[in-house]
Structure formats: structure tokens, C-alpha cells
Amino acid sequence: MSIGKRRPRLSRAQLRPSAATISLKEDRQARQRHRAGRLALVVASLLATAIIVHGSGPPFTYRLGQRADREIRVNVKEFRMRNQTKTSNERQAAADQVPPAMVNDPAPILELADRLDDLTVAISRAGRFEELHDAVRSNWKLRPEIFAAIKSAVAAPADRDRLHAQIASAFRPLVRDGILGAGALPTNEESARILAVRQKGEPRARARQVALERVIPERMTKPDGAVFQEFCGAFTPPQVGQVLFALIAEKLDSTPTLTFEAEATANAREEARERVPDHYDIYTRGEVLVEQGQSIGEEQLILLKLEHERAGELLGLGDRLRRGLGILALVVALYLLTGYYAYRHETRFVHDPRRIALICGLVFMAPAVVRLLNMQTWDAELVPVAIAAMIVAIAYNPNFALMVTFTISLLTCVTLGTDLAHFLVLMGGTAAGALTLNEVRTRTKLIKVGATAALTYFLMTWATGLWQDQPIELVRSDSFWRAGWGLMAGFFLGGSLPFLEGSLGIVTGISLLELGDNTHPLLQELVRRAPGTHNHSITVGAIAEAAAERIGADALLVRIGAYFHDIGKMLKPHYFIENQVGGTNRHSKLAPAMSTLIIIGHVKDGVDLGRQHHLPEPIIDLIEQHHGTTLVEYFYYEANRRNGNNPDASAVPESAFRYPGPKPQTREAAILMVADAVESASRTLSEPTPARIEGLVEMLVDKRLRDGQFDECGLTLREIAEIRESLIKSLIGIYHGRVKYPEHRTA
């Protein structure tokens, strides 16, 4: 027994998903991929920003000349500071202990010893003093008593042999130590008391220290000197040695053997310096480094840096992790705050990956450049903050730039470890520049904005410096540096603006004014091919600009966009009523569907022409969106009329007679849409009285409002009403009445 009807089995074809279902699924997947890509971009930027802000550890926050608001003590167990003065003194003392390096060439002394030995031999062979050769007597300045003393010492052959050995022994110290000639030592070495003497051909390591008095001839010849006594002591009896030494004493000056080695001396002293270790002063926990109210000097700044570096070395993994998590939380909060503001007030930003990349890049790059500039003493950390804020103000609007300025200023202060005063200076000066950057129509605008920021930096620096009771010299220096960098930021951005416009896709008033020049190739071609369309575009630009100014939209963008919004019509100009001359209508011989394709096609043709001529994306967006998804009513109704005469014809689909869109995404696109529609429709009025114009405008605006064309552009009902009033006023001005002049009659 059956309880109910059996469910019919579906065919295999019915079980397959339809094309519409597949398309919806693919669209959903594409949106999810885009959303994931945007999220990945933000997360990557967030992590990179957190890494930059964290850096290698806590930042060093003290500056030269800063007045301490509290007593600064050592906060680590101990740290060491190299005492440069004591280290240099100890090393210099060690270098001074190194004697001058000398090399001894004993050949002249050995020759003198041989000559003295030859003299004794000659005396031993001579019977009398007169028998000696005159040259020998004059060379040695012999006297008879000296001859007699030596003659008695070599009377026997054994005595001659003994005297020969004694002469060799007496000269041995002289050969070993050498003789220092006049001027052999440089002036700066004359105070040395010891010499490091090595024999010629021996390595430096075998040098021996010799007292200076043993090698200076005038000291060697003194009777109480060591050299004299050693020489005489080598003879038996010593009186013989005294006689012989008297003979050679005068010849010692002319037989120098020691030569100064400058390079060896310098190397030895440098080695002595290197052997001396650095001298360090030890500072322990609790020692006062800077007194309260005292200005930080150079020596104190060095101590504070060393203490900071030591504290960084002692940071454990847990401390670093806690600090990193805190910074990450702060960066996440700032990103969320900026993102929430953009979501509420900058809806275009949220769905555009390029715009997201620009903001994330600026927020990431500003602290990175700040960290690089902080390594120098230029106080230029405000330059990247000011430039980033100005770029955002140009690309978006001053209000969003103010939000980004807050984020970047706070991240900069965390990166540098600065206080509230520095944040106020950064925020105040940068905000003043960004808020005055509402529109850039001249090159000097950015310089004026830079001057405004510079003045605010100057005043804020003085205000915060006096508030914190900082030294006047420091405040004066900081104020002038910051004012100069603020002005330089304006000059830098003004010079780099063309490159930023090209690389970042930013459209400024300057670039729009250049586009609006009548010499632009597209406008010249539009005048030549479709003069009626060009005239229509100029009129639309005038009335749309006034409407945009009424609600605070970008009036210049609307006007320039209006000049280009119908450039697609120049490819088929005679299919558009404003370019038809002589009453010939080419659509009379075409089916409504074909005519609709031609009419709708001018949007796509305009976009293609815009891309070929590298028009900015905002202008191309206006071209693409200025009809939204509105209905081509004339041909839609004509198709229905023709269908009504054919009972076998199917219903006319409305979607086939609508523009492909998208609907206006911005207020500027919506204004252009309405201005284009009312300007075209107003030309159909046979008597454009103010009442008729007002009724026509209200009807067209209301029709597009009910059609949902304003759903995605962010316009409010109040703004729509103001746009309507502005358009009515402009059209009444265009079609104002004129006084009819009386006809001139001839006699």
C-alpha cells in the first residue's frame, strides 16, 4: 500500500548543473581568490612593518645636548668602557721603552785593529824612533816616549805574540757594540739611552741592547768610562793599553759603524703598542651616569650607548619575544584602525589591490627609511613621514592622509623610541601639510605645502621643547633642521611627482589640466570627426563641474572626464544625432537591435581608445561608467512597437537594450551620467523654459534613481538633490532668453 506519490526520477541532463549555476560558482571563487590575495598582501605588509619597527632590539633614545628629566643610572650589572687616554698613555710608554734599532758593520773597527797591530810590528822591528817611516809617525802622531813604551812591550818575540792577542781581545767589545757617528741618530731619537744593535747580516731577533755611552766616541775615551777601562784591562800591564788607546782615540770619530734603521724601529714600537691590552673603566649597577637636569655631553652619550648595548646583549629570548609580540599587537591595531576607516569612508580603496598595495607599501617603507636615516645625525626622520602623507593626500584625500599620518607617526616614534613630544611634532607638521594639499593644479602647490609643514614643524618643536624644558640650543637646532627638512620634502615631492604619477597611477590636477588641453590628439581627432559630440562634451564638462563643486566632489576630474567620455563616437560619428547633418538618419534602415549595438558600442570603443592613448584609469572609469546599465529607451520601445505588429514575434528582452555597465562606482561618475543625460535631453526641448528644464532634469534624475544607477557610487539623497539643483541652474543659464532686437528698416 502506497503512503504517497513516488518522487519522479530526474534525468541525467536535469542533474547536471546549469550554465548559470556554474557561472555563479566561478564568480564566487574568483571573489574569494581576490579577497584572499588582498588579505595576504595586508598580512605580509603587517609582518614586514612589525619586523622593521622591532629592529634588533629596544632603540637608543638619548641625544647629544638633551636635558635629562630624571637621574640616569646604570641599569645592568656592569659594563666596561675603554679608557682611550689611559690606553694611549700606556701604549706610548711601551713604545718609548723600545730602543732605536741600529745595524753594526764592524769592518772599519777591524781595519783599525789591524792597523794598530801593524804599528806594533813596525815598532818591534825598528831600532830607533827615527827609523820609523815618516808617514807612520805622522799618521799615528807618534812621540818618542810612546815609541819607547810600545818598544818595551814587544821586546821579545813572545811579547809580540802576546800583544797581538791582547789587541784582538781589547777590540772585541768595540767590534761587538760598534761606534755611533755624528748625526747617525735622528733628532727625535737623541734622548735614547739604550740602542738595539744587531750585527750586519744577522736577524733583528738577535739584536742586543747597548748603552748609548758605550758607542759615542767622546764618552768612550773618558778614563772613567767602561770602554776605556775594558780596553786597558785587556793588556798586561794596563799601561800598555792606555798608550794604545790614546793612539786610537782620535780615530774613533772617523770610524762609525752604526746605522739607524727607521722602519725596524717603527715596527718594533708598533708591536710593543699592540702587546699592551686596552684599559677599561668598569661601571656597575646604580652608578649615576647623568644627573637630573643635566645636559647630555659627548662622553655621557658614549656611556649611555655602551650601557644600552650591554642591556641589549643581556636580553633573553623571553624578553625579545614579549617585546616582539607587543609591537606586533600595536601594528595590528594600527592596521585595523586604518582599514576600518578605509572601509567606512574609502570604499574604493578596500576592493582595489593596487590601492591597498600603495598604502601598505607607504606604511611599511616610511619606518624602514626612518630607521636608515636615524643611523646618521641629520635629524631627517620626518622626511619619509611627510612624503608618505603627501602622497596619500594627492592619491586619495586629505582626511585619509590624516589617518595614515597618525599611523606612520606612531610607528615612527615606536621605531625610534621617542616620546610624546616627538609624536606631536611629527603629527602636527605632517598633518598641516596634508590638510592643505586638497588639490594640486600647479607645480608650486607642493612647495607651498612643504613651507606650511616646515613652519608647523618649527613652531611645534619650539612648543614641545619649551614644554619639556630642553636647552635652548638644542631646541633651536632641532627647529631649524626640521623646518628645513619639511621644506625639502615639498621640493622633493614636486620634482618626483611625474614619476610618482606614472609608477603609482596617481592622477593630480596638473596631469588633468595637461589632459584637458585642446591640443591632445584624441580631442583634436574628436573635433575633426565628430564636432557635434565635441561641443556636447564641452557643455557636459561645464555643467558637471559646477555640480561636482556643489557637493565637494573632484570637479576637475569630472570636467576632464566629460571631455573624453564620448570619444568612442568618433569611430561611427554619423550614427549619433548630434553629428547628423541634413536630416539623414542612418538608423532608419537598421533594426532596433543593430542600432542599439552601435549606440552601446561607443562606450567600449571609448575605453579602447583611452587605453591606446594611455589615459589615466580614473578617466577610463568615467568613460566606462557614464551610462551605467541604463536602458537605450528609444530603440527598446521601437523594437516593442515593431513586435506589436507581428503576433508571432517573441517578447523583447530588456537586457539586450541596456548598456553593459558597470554602474557608476564614484560620485564623479554619477554626476557625469546625469549631466550627460540632461544635456542631451535638453536639446530636444522646443521651448527650453525654466519650468520645462526643471521638469526634464527631475524626471531624468528620478528615473536613474529608481533604476538603481546610484546604488554603488556612495551618493546620498541630499547630494542627489544638490546635483539636480545645480544642473537646473546651469541649463537655465545656457538656455536663457534673449532680447529680440527690432528689425532695421531702410528708407
Folded structure, characterized:
It is a single chain. With 747 residues, the chain is mainly alpha-helical. 62% of the residues lie in helices and 4% in strands. The chain contains 30 helices and eight strands. The strands form three sheets. Strands 5-4-3-6 form a four-stranded mixed beta sheet. Strands 1-8 form a two-stranded antiparallel ribbon. A two-stranded antiparallel sheet has the order 2-7. Strand 4 and strand 5 form a beta hairpin. Helix 16 packs parallel to helix 18, helix 16 packs parallel to helix 20 and helix 29 runs antiparallel to helix 30. The protein starts with 11 loop residues before the first helix and ends in a 13-residue tail after the last helix.
* Tally of DSSP helical segments: 30
Major sheet:
4 strands, mixed
Strand content: under 5%
Helix content: 55-70%
Number of strands: 8
Spatial order of strands in the largest sheet: 5-4-3-6
Mean pLDDT across residues: 88
Shape: elongated
Flag low-confidence runs: 1-5
- In terms of quaternary structure, what is this? single chain
Return Rg in Å.
51 Å
> Structural class of the helices, strands and pairings?
mainly alpha
